[in-house]
Design a protein that fits this description.
Layout lengths: L11 H12 L3 H4 L5 H8 L3 H29 L1 H20 L4 H29 L4 H30 L1 H6 L2 H19 L3 H10 L22 H30 L4 H13 L1 H12 L6 H20 L5 H10 L3 H11 L4 H19 L1 H13 L3 H22 L9
Helix pairs in contact: 1-6, 1-7, 1-9, 4-5, 4-6, 4-11, 4-17, 4-18, 5-6, 5-9, 7-12, 7-13, 9-10, 11-12, 11-16, 11-17, 11-18, 11-19, 12-15, 13-16, 14-15, 14-19, 18-19
Organism: Luteimonas composti
InterPro entries: MFS, MFS_Cyanate_Porter, MFS_dom, MFS_trans_sf
Protein name: MFS transporter
Length: 412
């Protein structure tokens, strides 16, 4: 049965909303991390609080990944998307007006809450408005998300040097405001029953449920009993841990080695940009191979070389170290792809996705904090990288379970 086809012209507003929202899903993370060293001097916080700032993103994504579906079922996907962008804009703006560490942290929490909500609602919005182009629109919004991750890291220090740190942090509220205004236009069309978007919305919703795309058949098994599920959680969680630890600490590590803050921001941008390579190439490749574990080994070799280079000679070939480091998190899109490849039913996929991302993001919260605490306690980076090596080992153990060709439903 072929997917229904609808005119693109009638859906351009929805596409604009989705892409604008996607751009805003990581700006609160990478606009801040290149400035944490200088902000620590301004507000008087050290490595421990830097680690706290680094753990807030994954904590917010874990918490709001659980809470968002219930909210969306009640108020609808579009209103939830609008709320996510309003929270993002408000938090980013409040953070730029902070008078101390508490205000900086509070604004970050609000902004990241909005981005955590956005993580959940964008995929079903793609399914609602582009049922005939799910793959292409998903690839497009993931690409825009990566651009929104890269640009703030690249611009943070130059903007702070030219106009001050408040402008550097606050300017990223503007794209969130633009996304919110676009969602308001969609809601206006739907309320007045005008245009194709209103038709698609009315067809999608069900009585008493404004977001049926987020519903799934109840799973008949206990996912936590399956070794596959635990392997997926550790693979996903340890990858996220290393990624957000590096987002937080890479600028500081390079600046202590003698690099400028602007160079540290540029390397953070390069690190985030390399995530696009895996996002575009891995899903299709993983679907064609029986066991993708060799890719995990390649990622581990990249991590090992990058960790050694950043620890022993960070400024000798810094671009090479960051490129190798950026290829390591290719296991992230692999884990997301395996959620569907290792399940037979929508209920199994939903159960495995919830377990993997919920537990995975929870585990990853500790990474930035422990990495910084070890650095502060020892005065060097050796034990911090030893901690990351342990996490990579756990990731490999999880990936061994996740990559083996078997199905969740056969284990629970």
């Amino acid at each position: 049965m072929t997917s229904p086809r609808f005119p693109w012209a009638g859906r351009l507003l929805a596409l604009s909303c989705i892409l604008l929202s996607a751009f805003n899903l990581r700006t609160a993370v990478t606009s801040l991390t290149p400035l944490l060293d200088s902000l620590g001097g301004t507000f008087g916080f050290g490595a421990t609080m830097t680690g706290v700032f680094g753990m807030v993103p994954t904590a917010a994504f874990a918490a709001f990944g659980v809470l968002t579906p219930r909210l969306a079922h009640r108020i609808g996907l579009e209103r939830t998307a609008l709320l996510s962008m309003l929270l993002a804009a408000g938090g980013l703006l409040a953070r730029s007006c902070a008078g101390g560490t508490g205000g900086l942290l509070g604004g970050s929490v609000v902004a990241l809450a909005g981005m955590g909500v956005g993580n959940v609602v964008l995929p079903p919005l793609v399914k609602r408005y582009f049922p005939d182009r799910v793959g292409s629109v998903s690839t497009l919004y993931i690409t825009v998300l990566q651009v929104g991750t890269m640009l703030p890291a690249l611009a943070a220090v130059p903007l702070a040097q030219a106009a001050g740190w408040r402008v550097s942090l606050g300017v990223w509220s503007l794209p969130a405001v633009a996304a919110a205004l676009a969602w308001m236009a969609v809601l206006w069309q739907e309320r007045h029953h005008r245009g194709l978007l209103a038709v698609l919305h009315d067809r999608a919703v069900a009585p008493g449920d404004e977001a049926p795309e987020l519903a799934s058949p109840p799973a008949r098994g206990s996912v936590w009993r399956a070794p596959l599920a635990w392997g997926m959680a550790f693979m996903f969680g340890m990858t996220s841990l290393v990624t957000y630890t590096m987002f937080t600490w890479l600028p500081r590590l390079l600046s202590e080695a003698g690099a400028s803050q602007a160079f540290g921001g540029a390397m953070t941008a390069l690190f985030s940009a390399l995530g696009l390579v895996g996002a575009l190439l891995v899903p299709g490749w993983a679907a064609r191979v029986r066991n993708p574990f060799p890719l995990v080994i390649g990622c581990v070799l990249g991590y090992l070389a990058a960790f050694a280079g950043l620890l022993l000679a960070p400024m000798q070939w810094p671009v090479l170290w960051v490129v190798l480091l950026g290829l390591g998190p290719t296991t992230f899109p692999l884990a997301l792809t395996l959620i569907n490849l290792r399940t037979r039913t929508p209920g199994g996929s939903a159960a495995l996705s919830g377990f993997t991302q919920g537990l995975g993001y929870t585990l990853s919260c500790a990474g930035p904090l422990l990495f910084g605490a070890l650095h502060e306690a020892t005065g060097g980076w050796t034990w911090s990288f030893a901690f990351l090596l342990l996490c990579v080992a756990l990731m490999v153990a999880g990936a061994w379970q996740a990559c083996r060709p078997r199905m969740l439903e056969d284990q629970w």
